Amino acid sequence: MAIFEYMNVEDVWTIFFNMNSRFNSLVFDSRLRLTADVSKIDKSNFDNFCLSLINTNFSNIFTLILSNNYYRYPQIRSFLSQTNFTVFQSLHAITLIDINHDELIEVTKQMKELPYLNYFHVNTHEIFYDKELANITRALLDQSNIRVSILCLHEKLQWLETESISSCNAEVLSLDFINADRLFSLLPNCPRLRSLSLTLDPRTSLPKIPEETLSPTLILNTFAQITYLRLCFRPFDPSILDRLLNSVPSVRRFSLETLVYNTDYIRSPYWTLLLQSQLPLLERIRLIIRGWFVLKTSNNINNEKFDEASVIDSYRYDRYWLDRAYKRKFHCNVDSYSYTAMLQIR
């Protein structure tokens, strides 16, 4: 029976249903954790499949995946017109692809009535108005039962300043794009967060507030529960990075991908000093740095030549990096035609 859990529910029904009474009882066993990936079902078959899903096998659907793919029919709208998510009380995971604003708002309301739901993944290329994006962001993050939240909206997350995110209990949070100031206002409201992945824009979405006017609690806030940090950082801002790392001193696994414009930020002294001082518990690191125009003479102090061999050797023969680069892969590639360099440490 366990093999059914590795198959899509459509395949399970097509292959095993009505084969014999024994298989019929197994297919509809409530102990099964079936995955219903209906995102690839043709429109001609979707309605019938949806009805069978609702009428005969809703009790053991563990994962549900729906899609409004650009080149397909509005599957999520059709699904919501025939049923709702509250029918599937055994749901633990939902993935929604290319969902629009109205559908997403409706789904977030229904999610609160699913007692076992703890995983939510939304990936949409819809273009939202600012107010719509604010409503969606708040609705998605204010889900007290969700433990794993993956939000790929392909726009910077935002919410109204008069409204705060108060009930985000996610332990694993992945954000596609967010401003630094929004991130720092969100983290205090995520007390259970232990894994954070995000694309971070260091530019503020609010008027710049002088640091001396900020309260000490805001400046020195730390989130010791976060032990995993995966960061895509663009454009590179040393002060914001320093502030972020200072706020997560318990990180043990750290991944960073960024773009720099100065050779100092691709060499080992900067990163070694930063990580040793800010992340004392660090055990594993992945570092990908792209240097743009770093090879131009005008960007090098005293016309210093960029030597990729010496750069990579400064990492490769340093015990600090050897102990933390899990795969022990050290590469530095230079393209002299485009004046770029790329450092990879894994």
DSSP strand tally: 12
Strand percentage, roughly?
Answer: 15-25%
Q: Provide the domain count.
A: 2
**Helix share bin:** 25-40%
Strand order of the largest sheet: 1-2-3-4-5-6-7-8-9-10-12-11
Measured between the Cα atoms of the first and last residue, the distance is 40 Å
Radius of gyration: 24 Å
SS-based structural class?
alpha/beta
Overall pLDDT, averaged? 81
Tally of helical segments: 12
What is the string of helix and strand elements?
HHEHEHEHEHEEHEHEHEHEHHEE
Low-pLDDT runs of 5+ residues are 211-219
Oligomeric state of this protein: single chain
Basic shape? elongated
Describe what this molecule looks like in 3D.
This protein has 12 helices and 12 strands. It folds into 2 domains: 1-126, no CATH class; 219-346. The protein has 346 residues and is of the alpha/beta class. 29% of the residues are buried. The protein is elongated, with a radius of gyration of 24 Å. Mean pLDDT is 81; it is low at 211-219. The protein has a 12-stranded mixed sheet with strand order 1-2-3-4-5-6-7-8-9-10-12-11. α3 packs parallel to α4 (75-82).
